[in-house]
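In line with agreed milestones, the collection of sequences with tokenised folds has grown. A representative record is reproduced below.
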Amino acid sequence: MTVELDGRLMTDRAAAHAHIQQQFSFPEYYGRNLDALYDLLTEISEPTHIHLLYSDALIRSLQTYGSEMLETFAEATEENPKLFFHVT
């Protein structure tokens, strides 16, 4: 499976988590925070390539929170061998 995330659409925390939820088809109970993101990413059981496009736009919009989000993806990738995270 391949999931594409567009950093240009992640203009604030709510928009970022809504985009992530939609692209991953996360359930309604998704908590829309970094802990919930990590939890659901580490539960993925099929090989999944995550492509984050326009990461610079994400960082510009979300600043520190954007960096923390990137760290969350990286940490989940370390924990879950089925995840592959690519940033452009």
